[in-house]
UniProtKB/TrEMBL annotation:
EC number(s) recorded for this UniProt protein: 6.3.2.1
PANTHER family in alphabetical order: CYTIDYLATE KINASE/PANTOATE-BETA-ALANINE LIGASE, PANTOATE--BETA-ALANINE LIGASE
Miscellaneous comment text of the record: The reaction proceeds by a bi uni uni bi ping pong mechanism.
Protein name, as recorded: Pantothenate synthetase
Gene Ontology molecular function: ATP binding; pantoate-beta-alanine ligase activity
Active-site residues annotated for this sequence: 47 (proton donor)
Lineage: Bacteria, Bacillati, Actinomycetota, Actinomycetes, Jiangellales
Organism, as annotated: Jiangella aurantiaca
């Protein structure tokens, strides 16, 4: 009898492209479909889910690209651009683990060689609501860099997490309104076992703030569970959960929107969204709600 044999797994390092020329050279090697996952680095299991979904889209013969770029254009003054976690070695290791083919990690002046761009993408009215109301200019910065990264990576698919639901919605709208030839794929939110949505910013939280932050997912679940009672019941149930611990977090908004984020949904698929600060850390989360 033979004992168990250990299967050896070969992990191939992805090509790391720092310039647009290196990216073009790396992409010229792949002949099949490609998929891109755009990130700001500090990768976690949510990003891993996006990489796996990307691989599912293109298969083993396709090319999976991960971009790592902390985009200054989407940060306002006083936000955390300077202290945003930069963990490139660990990020590259996760990409290798997931069989990612190409990591595009440009410096700021590679992507913005003429400084701040003169021509940017206007996100429309939704860009000034919810996150956009708290972070003016944020979605113009996001959509501008997403458009640039789409056009540099030229993927068949681009994957975005539902955790940033407004971002996903606006990216879909940009692609539709500007006739961009890319398919946008949304990926469900990955959570810790206790419900907290994974986020690179979770690492800013103290133990007490992390516990306090759990009120967000509890409020969303309470809201979704109350869907049979209609929109007012959803909001009341979520609000009651937040009010149970008034000092846990400082809520920026709790809103129920249609699935496309139009205001005041009455029936059908809707989305309950929340944003709050736990200490100095801003967190967002959302959940699907099925209104009768
Ligand atoms: N928990 C998650 N589940 C699924 N997708 C996620 C999750 N967290 C982030 N993503 C997605 O990963 C992509 C890159 O996001 P990003 O690098 O900003 O990570 P993040 O954790 O959202 O960081 P931040 O803390 O800055 O919000 C986005 O499409 C985002 O929606
Ligand atoms: C899409 C994105 C990578 C653009 O900088 C960023 O907004 C993010 O990480 O969600
Ligand atoms: N995850 C969204 C990017 C940002 O907060 O700037």
């Amino acid at each position: 009898m033979h004992g168990p044999t250990r299967q050896s797994v070969t992990v191939t390092d992805p090509i790391v492209a720092r310039t647009r020329d290196e990216l073009a050279e790396a992409l010229s090697r792949g002949e099949n479909e490609s998929a891109v996952v755009m990130t700001m680095g500090a990768l976690h299991e949510g990003h891993r889910a996006l990489m796996r979904a990307a691989r599912d889209e293109v298969g083993t013969g396709g090319t999976v690209i991960v971009t790592v770029f902390v985009n200054p254009l989407q940060f306002g003054p006083g936000e955390d651009f300077d202290r945003y976690p930069r963990t490139f070695d660990a990020d590259r290791a996760m990409c290798a683990d997931e069989g990612v083919d190409v990591v595009f990690a440009p410096a700021t002046d590679e992507l913005y060689p003429h400084g701040e761009p003169q021509v940017t993408v206007a996100p429309g009215p939704l860009g000034a609501e919810l996150e956009g109301a708290v972070r003016p200019g944020h979605f113009s910065g996001v959509l501008t860099v997403v458009a640039k990264l789409l056009n540099l990576t030229v993927p068949s698919y681009a994957l975005f997490g539902e955790k940033d639901y407004q971002q996903l919605t606006l990216v879909r709208r940009m692609v539709a309104d500007l006739e961009l030839p890319y398919e946008i794929v949304g990926v469900p939110t990955v959570r810790e076992a206790d419900g907290l949505a994974l986020s690179s910013r979770n690492r800013y939280l103290s133990a007490g703030e992390r516990t306090a932050a759990l009120v967000l997912s509890r409020a969303l679940l309470a809201g979704a569970d109350a869907a049979a009672g209609g929109p007012d019941a959803v909001l009341a149930a979520a609000r009651a959960e937040l009010d149970r611990e008034p000092d846990a977090v400082a809520v920026d908004y709790l809103e129920l929107r249609a699935a496309d984020l139009a205001p005041d949904p009455r029936h059908g698929p809707a989305r309950l969204l929340v944003a709050a600060r736990a200490g100095a850390t801003r967190l967002i989360d959302n959940i699907a709600v099925d209104l009768p």
